[in-house]
């Protein structure tokens, strides 16, 4: 099966249903399935009329919107390979991908992204045409997406089935997309995913997750990342109404769109929980007490669900009262219709999962890489906080001697585009090396414990995995970001980024630092502020071996950002960049070190 088969299957059964919607606070645009199919046929024919040949690459830089999906499907019907990229890429990063992929057609969504694309595309090999989705945008040699569709109309007028002829020749092993990993080290790698990789993963996800035509799903994670794209494929084939929203509009869209499900990264759920708790903290004491009682009862009921046992009659009664007075109101603040949500891309704090489960919104955590697609996911009837779930049907997992997770299955990529050396390095006797350290429990649930390449090896030879320690520290809402350092050093230290808003609010509530008294940087140097974060570090150290414990830390006034280079577009920390940027500060932590 190829991706266009999935599209045909849905169109044949759900032509009149609402399929895609683009929502903003100012209004929305909705496309029925038949309208999407019509646009896909027009654009596919237009790409063929432009001379797109089988296996040629089409680069797309755009935010989530219906045209993204239309271009994706149209490119595949035309026999092409879609190369989606992050809108946050810099011009040099875009130049690298243009050069490496050899894209013949490039598409931007708006004037700002078009300008970036034009700057990067100068001298790009093999580039024949620049396209912009929004018709009012302009540039040298640029044509609009509607112009391509109009050319498609001309071709369809002469040959109505021409738009699907290339797809009829496509095979499962043919490459459907090349996704460039953001990477925490080195240049990005172009992951080659075949039609068979994608369709096999969609099929198994639809088997284990509950999607139906009565669902409404938000699509706000970047579609150039494979998680959201796979989710949208699943939604489309199951007839789910997909609503594209900007991340900045997520909060408003929850109550306006009232979704039933969506995928997100852990940070989205952490911020949602913190926002709820912040609002509760400002309410009268009795209301606060009622809220925490209700959540506590919800947690008890949640534990029963996790352990797959029936709650006793007294708990059932208390839960009914708690749900009526407290938990239902939490759900209403999230739109009131959420059945479950998905999480991936980074470890989810079990405390966050348990909070939402208490409110009646299970978070199903899963795991996978661009190279492997989804490997594991918790199920509604079988989930465990702290784990990323059992393997999908057909997925094989095993641990190497050093604890690295190896994977095998139909979703494993075809390698890296034009990079045979790194392709060879990533495969071992038919197994893909994930680079992640993991454990598999007695029930077959997978737990990721860190990145193999990110292990900190102290000067005493002790190996420290920073990911889980950082996750523990981040569970405190006074911490926004954290990066552990200590590779080759006598001990582990931490770079902490406080949550500025919450820290200032706490200081004012306690009658301490006033905003006008001093700069934020000066505030972070105060002994009473240091004491707050010493307590957070002490809590994290409590369950760690001596060699893992954080001995020193520094408070940073500015957050790590994608623009600053410290984060990848998927919000993962680039440790080498952080260590280089804060080298002087890190050296000062170890200047008088005598601990071993």
Stretches with pLDDT under 50, minimum 5 residues: none
Give me the CATH architecture of the domain at 3-255, please.
3-Layer(aba) Sandwich
Number of strands: 25
Kindly report the name of the CATH homologous superfamily of the domain at 3-255.
Answer: ANL, N-terminal domain
Spatial sequence of strands, sheet with the most strands: 4-3-5-6-7
Give the percentage of residues in beta strands.
15-25%
Query: Roughly how much helix do the residues carry, as a percent range?
Result: 40-55%
Top CATH class of the domain at 3-255: Alpha Beta
Mean model confidence by pLDDT: 92
Largest sheet: 5 strands, parallel
Give structural notes:
With 596 residues, this protein is α/β, with parallel strands linked by helices. It is 41% helix and 20% strand. The chain is built from 21 helices and 25 strands. A five-stranded parallel beta sheet has the order 4-3-5-6-7, with helices on both faces. A hairpin with a 3-residue loop joins strand 14 and strand 15. The longest helix is centred in the middle third of the chain and has 22 residues.
